[in-house]
Amino acid sequence: MQYRQLGNTDLNVSVIGLGTNNFGNPSRIADKKISQRVIDKCIDLGINFLDTANIYGNGESEIHIGEALKGKRNDVLIATKFNLTNLNGESPKSRIQKNIEESLRKLQTDVIDLYQIHFVPNDIPHEEYLEPLNELIVEGKVRHLGECNYSSWRHADTTRIADSHGWSNFVSSQNNYSLMHRHAELELLPYCTEHKVGFLPYFPLAGGWLTGKYASGNEVPQSARRMVGQLQNDSASQSVLGKLDAFASEHEKTLVDLAFAWLLAHPAVSSVIAGAMTEEQVISNANAANWILDREQRDQVDEIAYWEGSDEDIERFGMGPDVPSAPPR
What we know:
Layout: E1 3-5, E2 12-14, E3 16-19, H1 32-45, E4 49-51, H2 60-68, E5 77-82, H3 92-107, E6 112-117, H4 127-138, E7 142-148, H5 152-165, E8 170-176, H6 188-195, E9 198-202, H7 222-227, H8 235-250, H9 255-264, E10 272-275, H10 279-288, H11 295-304, H12 311-318
Parallel strand pairs: 3-4, 3-10, 4-5, 5-6, 6-7, 7-8, 8-9
Antiparallel strand pairs: 1-2
Helix pairs in contact: 1-2, 1-10, 2-3, 3-4, 9-10
């Protein structure tokens, strides 16, 4: 397993991480023993970066992780998330203080390596959550802060405010990015590269599009279409999938291998957040990190999956208030 520095921090994360939004989900992984086996396999293979959120599995995901890591906490880095939606009169500071204590208890740890803000309404002033987040670092409950689903201008705005007060700021940005959903290239990825912000792509397989299941023209379920925004099950999408699958096969690799290798070829990417419900999926994800695309291969893949933002895309993703490009995760 390879490791990369997360932004400009002291954290070295495995290039393949474990996304745990399936843990505790009754329709996915309800059994803690299965979560245990998945996490044990990750540790065996050198995957040290676990990503969760206080809402995953209705709060059960963090509990599964805490149970699985008994006696193994030092083998991994834990990233979790909180949100500031639906405050209903509660202050951001109160929500943050309550959420951090709940996450620490469920994860059975005294410190969270990366504490990420999941969703925040645009009308909440940055100061109202940056200050209490900074207090968590001062108190030693959190090592670093990250954000999810921000645009570059919003990240820059929080940096300006945090710097003016001497507060800690976000060292990472987690967002939707894959071969089939490349909106982050408009402005977020260049920003992360320039300012040494660790980029953490989620939905690396585009909600199942890049597993190879749909490359032969099989019907794409509505859930997979929704996960990556506006992708359609049309001839153009099928053509791209077919060509990507053929490219991978020519190199004796799978479409999953290509999806991860392409993401890891970007210098801003610190770790790919990859979900897994079985030990076999963990092994597949880990093996994908072994394919290092050279510049020519990367260019060839870029041409196959060519995407150019329309004026509407640029307005939506490059300016103005954030508009999530995928349903909450």
